[in-house]
Request: fold
Amino acid sequence: QVQVVESGGGLVQSGGSLSLSCAASGIIFSINAMDWYRQAPGKQRELVAGIISGESAVYADSVKGRFTISSDNAKNTVYLQMNSLKPEDTAVYYCHLDISGPYAKNDFWGQGTQVTVSS
Reply:
């Protein structure tokens, strides 16, 4: 089975920066897409940023110019650099990977990491 482990997150003041990382391990033939989602209390989970293999990154309008998604394919790792953080960025952030391998499914999720931005 694939293991997806997130790290980073925490508490930061408004205007500050945080970096998240997400590493996959196990039998992986290819990673077709890497995404970061977030879910704030009482709200639906929303896409923050994503990379589809061979294509440009996409971002939610609310984070454009502040967040940057990147990946290290050799390490099966995706990163999210978050700058100029705002209180409304407070949420649990989840990594999602679309992975091809000897599995019945392609979707794998991290455990989630809390990001809290104080005003």
